[in-house]
Amino acid sequence: MKKWKNVWRILPIFLLLLLLTGCGETNLTALDPKGPQSQWIFDNMLLSLYVMAFVTIVVFAIYFIILAKFRRAPGDDEIPKQVEGNHKLEILWTVIPILLLAILAVPTITGTFLLADTEPEGDHTVEVKVTGHQFWWQFDYEDEGFTAGQDLYIPVGEKVLFELHASDVVHSFWVPALGGKVDTVPGITNHMWLEADEPGVYKGKCAELCGPAHALMDFKVIAVERDEYDAWVASMQEEPQEPTEVVAQQGREVFEENGCIGCHAIGGTGTAAGPALTNFGEREVVAGYLDFTDENIEAWIRDPQSLKQGNNMPAYPQLSDEEMTSLVEYLKSLTVLE
Amino acid sequence: MSTTTKSKSVLWDWLTTVDHKKIGVMYLIAGTLFFVKAGVMALFMRIQLMYPEMNFLSGQTFNEFITMHGTIMLFLAATPLLFAFMNFIVPLQIGARDVAFPFVNALGFWIFFFGGFLLSLSWFFGGGPDAGWTAYVPLSSRDYAGLGLDFYVLGLQVSGIGTLVSAINFLVTIVNMRAPGMTMMRLPLFVWTTFISSTLILFAFTPLAAGLALLMLDRLFEAQYFITDMGGNVVLWQHIFWIFGHPEVYILVLPAFGIISEVIPAFSRKRLFGYTAMVFATMLIAFLGFMVWAHHMFTVGMGPIANSIFAIATMTIAVPTGIKVFNWLFTMWGGKITFNTAMLFASSFVPTFVLGGVTGVMLAMAPVDHLYHDTYFVVAHFHYIIVGGIVLALFAGVFYWYPKMFGHKLNEGLGKLFFWVFFIGFHLTFFVQHLLGLMGMPRRVYTFLGDQGLDTFNFISTIGTFFMSAAIIILVINVIYSAFKGERVGADPWDARTLEWATAHPLPEYNFAQTPQVRSLDPLFYEKIHGDGKMKPAEPLQDIHMPNGSILPFIMSVGLFISGFGFIMFNMENPILPPIVVAVGGLAITFICMIVRSVKEDHGYHIPVEEIKAKEVN
């Protein structure tokens, strides 16, 4: 008997250990929080986990005692005492859960208001307008007057406020290591905030089913120190630099001849039907998830549907190899950081 | 005035039957077919997620599979499988000859069946629906979803009518058809949960029908209820859907609780601990279940006040649920427990369901839900409730009531093997999904990238699915094997406690030759202790009046099916017939049948006393 009980006391502790070791990839998993919001969420998740582990242990303990103790022996035809109920016990297991829930109710209410607190404060608050598209993210730095696609730069140690929009269907904006998710809903403006404790590249995801390529609607949050952030903002505001190399200059002609500018803005020119390419050359990934290589950029331009089913970009199989090489060179030259 | 309908073929007999037992069996078969179909889809989806960046299913196909898996499992598998037991067992447990409206009962089955058939046809017309079983607009609007979603809307609309009329039938039956002495507070828990679940259907399926109608108008006739450009509201759909969708969980899980509350006392040889508390806890869960729909929408931007209210309301459900869990435990406590297959399922349900329940409370903490929402943590949670709760209870019910339904037991050895393979597979599949969610894996993703730390647990999860699939194959083998070699048993093989085991064997079409007099909770057990082990009759032996079978329910359902298809044709390119003709024509068939039913007099038939005596002697 005692052996059984001990096993079931130890098991939940092992589970907690498993959680506390923070399995999963750093800068993605919510089990290794990297900001005050995700830290708060993680702490309160643990609180609820402890309370619920207590409940689970009680139930499992009773259950395993029953398994061990009350089996009917073969041939035993005795009829056990027919117990109608027990008011004291029933009151006990009504009151205790109410108390346990009261413990959880307090952080639930305070936390709900904490997460909803998106009033701008101080001079250094950055505000970004996020728009979810099938299947990419648009980041408008409206006060600074420029637009970025896919890569969201934020300053470390500052509360960044987000205004969330959707252009087509419902998406959900989520950076697990930094905080909770909030949906982007057509016709509705939502608000949220995030803050990163340390510099790094945090992985972001779309969490609401939004079409065939929903799984690939990833983005990056790049947290940098304040001065680095200011420098980035300043260079994003400038007109893009002329490509210096000949190949890249030819690539720009290919870009213009094929009407790419009709969807992809570079600097202040062009529309925002597709991701802005102002700082394309600094991306870590192509199309949100592919390694940033020449081959992948080319594959994307030749046949975007095969890489991200259902996206809105037309295919350009007609480009010659020469044109493609120069186009890729041009795209890689689109950088703002030194 | 006698039984002369025996000459017709077997097929005709089943198509026209209004007998609640045969309808129960038909629900069981139809539900099982849909269960297997949706299960195979789940297997395919897990294979796709076995390794990162697999190319087994495309994103589009995967989305069609998740949508159909969820829709079928909830509407066309879990619901009818529970209806199978409700139909077969509830009239027996309350000592009735049939349900209140046998004709409507048959109608309910056929409408459900043809609604499901209509939904399944989507595969032959350009792919299944692909917007998830929740069909959130705008993804489910005409701009983003194809013809498959029209099948979703009309298939569910038709099948929902079937569910609704069946629920009304159960309500009337339980209120009106109880044997003398069977007071409401002596009803077996399965009857109570059927009653409360039917009430939920009444109030939850009506908003669903309204929501589906609005979505249909948007999709087929360019209305703008859910399109923001024209002043519609996207979140409106989510509210309507979850006002149905959250109670739906309780519609399914309450009867599952009922099955557990029957099986545990029977094999513990004890009466249910805290019966009254169980009844009121069930009512409370049902009531609260209606009040908390918006906890599915914490991240949609309702604001902190609404989120707080719905969070706290959701948490309170844990209290009555906890009462039930401890009552089950203390029913077993001090008992003499027989661990056969039915009891293995029923008893393992309790801790498994608790694991799903505690994550439910965790999810109810609105600010922390911003982490869990739309991740594999949620997938794990609701599969612990639906598979660990409802499906385990269904299997307990299958093994428990199989002898009453088919006259022989299922093989115990194969049954226990089935239990262990399924149980291990289930936990293997879904436990690690909690961790996947916390590690940043969103739900409804057709693939995941390598080197994100998600590989191992996804692989384990898929292996678990293989176990569950193997278990279902073992169950099928068991059913076939037992049909030939199964232990033939009498009327009361488990030495059980409730009225269904007091009927003659084999079960006659009229259930009870004489309506029994009920003297206590667990009436059969009471007679075993205080009487001669047989129910006292409450009426003299006399001719029994029975309803005639009818083909009208079948034809009416075909009419609704044709009409539903007609509405879908509005969105088809080059329909063969004008859609309006088909849509109205189908409805006309149904209405003509209704008129025929109203005008034609059908008094049923009587079974004479001599025939009853001859049967009862056997």
Written account of the structure:
The complex is a heterodimer of chains A (338) and B (618). With 338 residues, chain A is α+β, with helices and mostly antiparallel strands. Chain A has helices at 2-20, 36-69, 87-116, 226-237, 246-257, 294-302, 304-307, 321-332, and strands at residues 126-133, 136-141, 146-149, 151-155, 160-166, 171-174, 182-184, 190-194, 200-206, 219-224, 285-286, 290-291. The radius of gyration of chain A is 27 Å and the shape is elongated. Chain A starts with a helix and ends in a 6-residue tail after the last helix. The model of chain A has no long low-confidence stretch (mean pLDDT 90). Chain B has 19 helices and 4 strands. The relative contact order of chain B is 0.11. At the A-B interface, helix 2, helix 3 and strand 9 of A face helix 3, helix 7, helix 8, helix 9 and helix 10 of B.
Can you summarize this structure?
By secondary structure, chain A is of the alpha+beta class. Chain A has helices at 2-20, 36-69, 87-116, 226-237, 246-257, 294-302, 304-307, 321-332; strands spanning 126-133, 136-141, 146-149, 151-155, 160-166, 171-174, 182-184, 190-194, 200-206, 219-224, 285-286, 290-291. In chain A, the strands form 3 sheets. Chain A has a 5-stranded mixed sheet, with no helix packed on it.
